[in-house]
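Students often ask why we bother encoding 3D structure as a string. The short answer is that it lets us treat folding as translation between two languages. Here is a chain of 394 residues written in the first language.
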Amino acid sequence: MAIEGTTETRTPRIRLGMVGGGAGAFIGGVHRMAARLDDNFELVAGALSASPEKAAASGRDLGLDPARTYSSFKEMAIREAKLKNGIEAVAIVTPNHVHYEAAKEFLKRGIHVICDKPLTSTLSDARKLKKLADESDALFILTHNYTGYPMVRQAREMVAGGELGDIRLVQAEYPQDWLTEPLEQSGQKQAAWRTDPAQSGAGGSTGDIGTHAYNLACFISGLELESLSADLDSFVEGRKLDDNAHVMLRFKAKGKEKPAKGMLWCSQVAPGHENGLKVRVYGTKGGIEWVQADPNYLWYTPFGEPKRLITRGGAGAGAAAARVSRIPSGHPEGYLEAFATIYSEAARAINARKAGKTADPAVVYPTVDDGFKGMVFVDACVNSSKRNAAWVKV
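And here it is in the second language, the structure alphabet:
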């Protein structure tokens, strides 16, 4: 990432492979743009589809060497690990049920993994993947991309610095409306796999967007979940997974502080909401609010004082936000830039590992631990809802 005011030395691009993300796959294109934005990666290989024909065609479209366009991720992992200039990292951008098996093949061969969220489709697979990642010499990066926004980093820095005091309340919401009708029955690819338990897992909206809201709430607040009570619904007739969830949260106590409480709402049947991710955190000294639709703004209210607007690159923005900002204040940075920040943080960590060094403590990215916690969250939500929203410890 070329950040104003820094003197980072140009290092060779990291050789990247991709599993999934072939023709017609939305998130594959996003990952490729994010990997290219700061010029830290070069896509050199891929197993881009489960269909050999589609994989080959997608490889041609991306300009990949046909000899490095594979019909399966296992074949790619085996061959690339043997090549002198084989891939150093792999991006896994498949439906959830493929994540574990794909990541396993690369981790055990020492190839760094950059994986889309949620971590896996089942808690059992998540537990096995966490063990593999913890024991591997390779890094595991999970693309909870919203953690890459400068003003999210600003919010996290303010909480950690005590500017809000002891945290009391955390509110997170993520409403969408795209599944208000049974879109999956039309054959629309994204809707079909996201509402299929065999591919998505036990959670629908909870796994797809609830994990984002939960991860962001914990990332900003620095809190860990202790228990939850969840009420899940499938409002669309015939839908097999939840499309709306209301979740009450109890966080672990920190020191002598009274445990913080929270609420999380995620929905894919809320007309009028395109991508309404919002997080609010309140403490004894003040509160903050961040809205994904206006990502360059952070509202901050010290208790008893007027509400203040902190802007990306503006007065009041600190070092954590500046570190991941690319352009001068007043020029919007958004979704793709935030996604690219995760890739650039991954590149810094990978390059440090290659050099036998520890990455700068300022380098922050979601890990397999965050992914595992997300899967524990989904599993607890499903179990709680089955028991009439009973409180479930995590």
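Translate back mentally: The CA atoms of residues 51 and 347 lie 30 Å apart. Keep this in mind for the problem set.
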